[in-house]
Amino acid sequence: MSDNDDDMNFLAPKVVYVKPPNQVQLSQQEMAVPVTRNLSWRDPQRILNKVKFSYKEYAYKPMPSQDHDHLAIHFAMDGSALFRDSEEGKAQIELESAKRKAQEKVEQEKQQMLANPEMFKLMNKDKDEDEGGGGGGDGGEDQLFVEKNQFNYFDKGCQTWTNPTKELSVSTVQPMTAEFSTSVAMWEIYDTYVAALQKELREKQVLKSRSKKSKDRASKSALGAEPTAEDGEFDAKQEEFDPMTSPEMGQALKVMERMVNHNLENEIYHDFKYWEDKSDQYRQGEGSLLPLWRFASESTRSKHATSLCWHPQFTDLFTVSYGSYDFMKQGSGLIYCYSLKNTACPLYAFRTSSGVLCVDWHPTKPNLLCCGCYDGSVLVFDVQKRSKTPVYCSTVKSGKHTDPVWDVAWQGGDDHSKELSFVSVSSDGRVASWSLLTSRELQMEILMELKPSNKREADIEEDSVVGLAGGCSLDFNKRTDYHFLVGTEEGKIHKCSKAYSAEYLNTFDAHPGMAVYSIRCSHFHPHVFLSCSADWTVKLWDDSSKTDKPLMVFELAEAVGDVCWAPYSSTVFAAVTNAGKVHVYDLRVNKHEPICEQKVAKLTKLTRISFSPSDPILLIGDERGHVQSLKLSPNLRKDWKVGPFEAALIEEEARVLDTVIADVF
Question: What residues does each domain of the chain span?
C-alpha cells in the first residue's frame, strides 16, 4: 500500500512557501488579531476628473459623474427561458407540439405520394377534369406531385348574406336667382351720397313733425278736446318698436357678456375672491402684490394713463383718463370707465379733442364726471345720457384756462349756493371754481392766483412784471371742505382757503426746484398730508406746523410719479416710481422702510396709483396706456375696514397717526 502511495506522489503538486525578504515580523498574538476589510461597490480605478472639450465655449468642461460608472459587466447574454409550470411555458409547449404534429402529418403524406405515384396521377387527372383542362395529362407525367406550402398556409372560405341595395332620391326646388351688373363712376357715387343726405333730411323732418303732433295732442288733451284719427295713427306708429333695441334686451346682453367674461377669466376671479399669500405668516412686516387684471386696448397704446378715480357709489367701477405728458406728442384724449365685473372692455367711453389729464366723480351725483384737458378746457359728462358729447364745456366766452389743467376736484356745495361746482388748477397760475348753471353753461370764478412767495417778491423790483407760479396738483382737506392745498412747478405747497383768497394761509418749500406731482390729504387726520416729486422723495407734512420742515422723508431712489393714502388705515400709503416699482408703507409697522417693494412693469414709467375703497385692490397706470390691478396680501391689510366710518373711528385713527409721528421726534 505504501508502495502505491509512493508511486502516486509524483501526481500531487508540491507547494513551497517562500518568505519575502521584506515581510514584517509579527508575533503570534499580533497574527491572531482579525483584520477587517470592507468591500465597496465604488470602482477605485474610475477616473474622477474626466473632462470634455466644448466647442461652443471653446474650453474643457468637467463631465458629471453617473451611477453606472462604477458598474463592470463581465458577461451578458439575452435569454428566453420560461418556467414549464407557468402559463406562458405551458402555452409554448402546446404550440411546439402542434407544430411538430403538423410537420409529421405533412411528411407522412409526402411519403405516401412517393410510394404510390399512380394514385397521385389519378388524383391529378380527376382534378384537371373537374377544372375543365383536357390537355393536362401530357404534361402531368413530369410532375409526380406538388409539394405543400412550407409556411403552412391554409384557405378558409365563408358565405355572407348580401343586403339588397336601396335607392333614395330627393328633389328640391331651385332657389330664385337674380343677376345684377352695373358700372360705378364718380358722378354715380356723388348722386348716391346726395340721395342719402336727402333721405336723412327727410327723416329729420318726419321726427320734427311727430314731435310737433305729440305736443299738439298733449295740449288738446289738456284742454279736453277729443283725439282725432290722425292722432290715433301716430300712437299706433309710436307703439311699434324693435325689441332688439329695447332697454330690456340691452340689460340681458350686458348680463350675458359679464357671464362669458367670468367664464373666460375664472382663475383670475377665483384669485381675487379667495387667494391669500400663505408666506405672509413666515415673514413678519413684509407683504406682496398679486397681479390680477390688465386693462388695455389698441386705442390707448400710444397714450399715457394720466388719472385714476373710483366711483363713489358703484365700488366696482373706476375711470381712467388718457393723454400725454409729452409736449411734442399731443393728440386726442380718451376717458374709459371700466368695471371689475367685465374687464374685457370699458363700460363707457368718451373721446375728447385734447388729451385728458385729470378726472373726478361727483360725490353725491354719481352720473356727473368732470375732467381737465391739456388745452386748458374743462368738461363735464353725464354718463346716463347716450350722447358722448359733454353736457358742459368751458369756452373763451364763459372763461377758460390758457394752460393745461392738471387737477380737478368736485365740491359738495355751500349753504348759500345750490349750484354744483368743482375746482381746477392749471399751469397758468390760477385756481378756478366752475359752477354748473341751468342754462348748460359753466361760470368761472377765480379762487386764487398763485403768486410767487414773499421772499421772491422782496427781491423783485416794483417796475418789473411778475408772473404767476404754475400750479400742478390740488387736493381738498377731507375734514374741512373750504381748505385746500396747491402744489406748484417751483416745488412749493400753498395752503389756501375759499373764504380768503388774498393771501396764503401757509407755504411749504416742499421740493425746491422740482414740480410737486401729487398732494394727498389724509382721510382721517385733519392736518397731515403727503407730497411727492421728481427729487426721489415722498414727504409727510403737517399743515398746522409753523416750520418749513417735513415730519418724515422717504427716499425711493427714483422719480416718484404719484402717491396715495389707503382708505382703510391712517398709517398706510403707497407710491409709484419711474423704475416701474410700487412701494407700500405702513408707519405702524416700519417707519423707515417699505413693507412691500415690488417691480410690476418693465421698460416703462408708472404714472398713477389708487386704492380701491371697498376691495383689497391697488390700481397702477403707466406710460404705455396700461392699467394693472394688484391684490394686497394679508400683511398689507391687517387693519382692513370699509367705509363710511363713524366719527369715533376716525378720531381713533387720527390718534394712531399722531402717536406714530410723536415716536419719530
Answer: 266-456+467-664
CATH of 266-456+467-664, one of 1.20.140.10, 1.10.3430.10, 2.130.10.10, 2.60.40.60: 2.130.10.10
Q: Where are the beta strands (DSSP E) in 348-404?
A: 348-352, 356-361, 368-373, 378-382, 392-393
Question: Residue 408: which of 266, 301, 309 has the closest Cα?
Answer: 309
CA-CA distances (angstroms) from residue 3 to 7, 8, 10, 12, 465?
6, 9, 13, 15, 149
As a whole number of angstroms, the distance between CA 32 and CA 27 comes to 9
Exposure string over 167-183, b if 16+ CB within 10 A, otherwise e: eeeeeeeeeeeeeeeee
pLDDT band for 98, please (50, 70, 90 cuts).
Answer: very high
Helix (H) or strand (E) holding 553: strand 552-555
Residue 134 confidence (pLDDT): 46
The number of CA neighbours under 13 Å toward the Cβ of 256 is: 6
- Please, are residues 492 and 469 in contact by the beta-carbon 8 Å criterion? yes
The residues facing 405 across adjacent strands are: 426
Q: What is the pLDDT of residues 553-583, one digit of tens each?
A: 999 989 999 999 999 999 999 999 999 999 9
Cell 423704475 belongs to 579
